[in-house]
User: Fold these one by one.
Assistant:
Number 1:
Amino acid sequence: MIKKLLLGTLCIAQFSLISANDFTPNPIKDNGTGYFQNVPKSVIIKTKKFKVRIDKQPNGNYLYQSWGANTKITAKPAMIISNGELIPDGSGGNYYFEFNNNGTIYQVWRNYLTASAKKAPYTLVVIDQNGKTIVNQDAQIVKN
């Protein structure tokens, strides 16, 4: 009986040491988004009226470029906004990119968790200086 008790105690001690060695006290966060999100370095989406490309820059900020929906991405962008940021939205994996262009806010939402399985993977939202939403369009991934 004592041998079984000692053997059990030794096994528990071994498992505790293994678990302690696997513990990381300060996990590394990427993009300030937490541990659960896999944010692409570059994404191209298309709405009914626009194509939008978002790229992560070396300084950690994001670059927004947009074209008309029927314009090739190789053409000169109709709009370029730098210094965008990635903003986590809750703990379920959703996030959005936000860009400010002279008071007009451009947001590109990543929709992981939605109430509908048919919801588009991205949504483009544009808010004017008065806080009024002037564009709200679902977007499909062209390149991820």
Number 2:
Amino acid sequence: MDIDVRGPRFGAAVTSVVLAVTLITGSVWLLAWQTLAFALGTAGGVTRSPYGWVFRKAVRPRLGPPTEFEPPEPPRFAQAVGLAFAAVGLIGWIVGPAWLGSAATACALGAAFLNAAFGYCLGCEMYLVVRRVTVRAK
């Protein structure tokens, strides 16, 4: 079942704020929260992530009906990519080196911001490339 395109974009906006505050404050706890949010979005899909839940319960009822839909697989893959970067960020900040934590978090922030501000989902585009390559390889 296809999903409302505004949901993942809302999630990307919240993610951008969380990751920006994480970089500004150096809060490992905020990055741990975001890592958990990515993990839930990867496991259950973006509609079952914490930000997807907020969108569904608090934001979407205030908007008009959706006019654009997308398949759930690309945003779910994007959540997995975000999870990988957030996990590397956590490792960098907890175990070291700290620059690795900052760099991985900044990469995740950059991707989330692209989606939030411009509607360009870098992880979704990666999903499409992976699909094309794996289909050709068969």
